[in-house]
Write a structure and sequence with these properties.
Distance between the termini: 16 Å
InterPro entries: GDSL (IPR001087), GDSL_lipolytic_enzyme (IPR050592), SGNH_hydro_sf (IPR036514), SGNH_plant_lipase-like (IPR035669)
Family: Belongs to the 'GDSL' lipolytic enzyme family.
Strand content: 5-15%
Number of helices: 12
Number of strands: 5
Structural class: alpha/beta
Protein name: GDSL esterase/lipase APG
Keywords: Signal
Order of helices and strands: HEHEHHHEHHHEHHEHH
CATH superfamily: SGNH hydrolase
Bound molecules: 2-acetamido-2-deoxy-beta-D-glucopyranose
GO molecular function: hydrolase activity, acting on ester bonds
Radius of gyration: 19 Å
CATH architecture: 3-Layer(aba) Sandwich
Shape: globular
Length: 352
Amino acid sequence: MEVIRCLLLLAVLFLAGAHGGEAQPLVPGLFTFGDSSVDVGNNDYLHTLIKADFPPYGRDFQGRVATGRFCNGKLATDITADTLGFTSYPPAYLSPEASGQNLLIGANFASAGSGYYDHTALMYHAISFTQQLEYFKEYQSKLAAVAGSSQAKSIVTGSLYIISFGASDFVQNYYINPLLFKTQTVDQFSDRLVSIFRNSVTQLYGMGARRVAVTTLPPLGCLPAAITLFGHGSSGCVSKLNSDSQRFNSKMSAAVDSLSKQYHDLKIAVFDIYTPLYSLVTSPESQGFTEAKRGCCGTGKVEFTVFLCNPKSVGTCSNATTYVFWDAVHPSEAANQVIADSLLTEGINLVT
Ligand SMILES: *[C@@H]1O[C@H](CO)[C@@H](O)[C@H](O)[C@H]1NC(C)=O
């Protein structure tokens, strides 16, 4: 792990030297598609119930501002952006700063409450995956206007694309929606999601993307909200939901293998969130954490969607650095650091 981090830092420094002291990121840009785990603030501009633009969200972020990130500090993808050598983060697509020169470092299209399945986004007034891809198309014409078409093309081809959906499709849709869980098995629903993923990668490839990373599902059964809602009073992880997550993840892995065989000039990898998060939840002390069963924010058991924590929530912890979860669904910045470290190993081939 440390070796890989050092190699990447060396690469960043080397590029800095080659460009006369001005640090150059390892890839020209970063594009993110997904749900609340990677939304950096598109939700601020939407009429949705799922928002994070008020304290205590962001209380450990630069400037202590609530940016719309569902975390006390940085998301795993922010930390990845740091490691790649970015000094400012690819802006959220709907924010005013996502214009002009900022377009040169990519864009974040993610939207809290979104999923692979467009119906999930519809339920939460979020930006669907289909719409996120439309926005990427729109972005490309804006970029060409700013950078010229040949530089725009090389940015699009050289950039890293991160796709992170699925958790909302299950926790905020499938498991609570009789129209889905009574008519489809978890396997059938998973197959449907993975097929949407495959089509979307094909579309992205068609639009010029050549470096794609897709995150796995986390251990859904270990999210504090899932334990509260589906744990029948037990405080342990809900094993049914964890095995659903693992089955979904193997299907996703198989799809990624087949895509990489299909498109020889496409670099594509799976970012495994499941393993590092499961290990944090099941043995927190060995990694310096003290609390893995409830989030820091509010009661830490259900605060998401209906009961988002807010400045008046009672029980918010004073220091989230030893908490695995920030709220009942999202990891803390400290846990995101652990997750991002493990992504480095899997991502090295994508960016070198
Ligand atoms: C939280 O605790 C960590 C060590 O446990 C400490 O380094 C950090 O300064 C604390 N942060 C705040 C805001 O108190």
